């Protein structure tokens, strides 16, 4: 025996876990990518904003330098194209004026800090710096670009302005320089080239100049740096030759970085919140999903449980069998199935009611569970049907021992409240060797084997054998043929004489059904009546026998008629009506008819039997208790149900010739019936001796081969005629 492991469940749980893990990893990767993309975008925006600001600073700085140089250029224009200057500078006596208006203007001037007057050859006629004469020469004081600038002014054509300005490196630093030809304000030049004079104005780019530039143009940290240390973004200051003489740099304000620093935490926070939201969504979603799954699984589990017994139901058994079969296939062991049907459960149910029946089922379920243990699956598959399934490698050893244990368990009566019920059990066994037989087929086989146990007398176990299928097949074919025979009215009726015990005269006939099955010959009523009862065909068959017999008995007005009735016919609530209608249709007096029924039905359904008998007696027919002495045989029934006659079974009759206690029993029984005023018929009388004893015992009517076998209607007709002749 084996306990089932739940490996499919574990596999699906592992799958689910790895799926969740993968989803989380993917989600984390997506979040990382999204976060870095957003941060990269923000960085780019920040850098762009920084660059834009630097570009603005750069352009502003360039503009400031141009303005610085432009101012000097404008000053130069004022000083060079000036009628007074034109007069005094070219006047040999005018040097005093020149010094006071040019040289001395260099002190504390916002316009220029050095002034030089040059002749056409570039020789200095006057050099002043910061208000005092200076002793440097243009060649020593300036870099080489001075020559180029001076040349440009000297070589200016009449169409171009004879002025130029630029930045230049001086001994003292970087300065804006402007050179202009001294001339009339109108621009007219009075002198030939060799006699011409030129004014040079200089303004150094001092620290305070740069500071005021920074303030005016809002460029933080603007300062002069050496060409060698300048950065790529710095603004170069170039001389007239295009050579860099210095550079202006500034402190980047980095507005983008500042904004980014402000925005970044908010963005990261927002992304984190989105991530948390999704994680919560995911967590609650998967929790919900798990809950739904669990509820679903619980519902499936519940649908597999039988509410009354708490065992598996048929659905659950099939599910378990499927697992057992596939396990057997894998492990090479066998699935053993026991199918149990309680014997006598219906009787308990009918006698004590459904409440007691339910308690009995609970008791049996609990008992079986305790008996079998947890290693096997136990199911309740029908009203009083149970199944036990397990995997085993030694069913040949287990089965007899297990079945005996179960039968032993049913051997003791069940105490249900104050009542005691005795039920037995019929068991069918089927085995699926190495899982080669499916669960459904296994159940079918065990069920069939269980029926064999029932047929063989209940309270036993039977293992399935393949020839049972053939028997079942044969039985199915019998059913089909019987159905056809009933529909085609091929069920015949024979009549057996019943004689008056004292004179031996035929007073009655018993109608007995006959079926000559095509291809098989006569089938015993013991067999086909049973089949008709089990398949529900008995209603139609019984009424057809009654109708045929009633039609026959019309020809024999001196005879009474006995017809057999099966318990199954009482299930039809309109049965009494059908019987009455038959009498009415055929014009038969119900008083002549006796319906025979066996006692089994009265034991099982006393209340319903009483109601059925009452309704039949209301029509006017008589009721006889058939086969008395073959079963439970209680004389009490005779009185309880108001029988009109008792028929002693042939098994009891057969024993009377032996004498002794059998005769005593028979005589006592007959005497009791007679005391109740119930006449007695003895059946199966085969000898004269039997007839004599039975007559002496008090039977008023006798039936048996000794007086006549069951025979066709015309034979009875002939006997009736003979009897009439004798009387005449
Ligand atoms: P039963 O009602 O007890 O009928 C008497 C049976 O005993 C008949 O068997 C009859 O042939 C047989 N028998 C009569 N005298 C003797 C004798 O001296 N010796 C021996 N050995 N047997 C004798 P049969 O016809 O085989 O019927 C068997 C049973 O089938 C009947 O037993 C009755 O219970 C049932 N049956 C027959 N026809 C019908 C029917 O139309 N409806 C119903 N519901 N049951 C029927
Ligand atoms: Mg009978
Ligand atoms: Mg009988």
Tally of helical segments: 23
* CA distance, first residue to last residue: 83 Å
Average pLDDT confidence is 91
Tell me about the largest β-sheet.
Answer: 8 strands, mixed, barrel
- Report the principal-axis shape: rod-shaped
Instruction: List each distinct ligand once.
Output: ligand C2E, magnesium ion
Q: Over all CA atoms, what is the radius of gyration?
A: 66 Å
CATH architecture identity of the largest domain: Alpha-Beta Barrel
Helix content: 40-55%
The strand order across the widest sheet is: 17-18-20-21-22-23-24-25
**SSE class:** alpha/beta
Beta strands, count: 25
CATH topology of the largest domain: TIM Barrel
CATH C-level class of the largest domain is: Alpha Beta
Tell me the name of the CATH homologous superfamily of the largest domain. Answer: EAL domain
Using brief descriptors, characterize the structure shown.
binds ligand C2E; disordered N terminus; alpha/beta; 728 residues; Beta-Lactamase; TIM Barrel; Alpha-Beta Plaits; 6-stranded antiparallel sheet; 23 helices; 25 strands
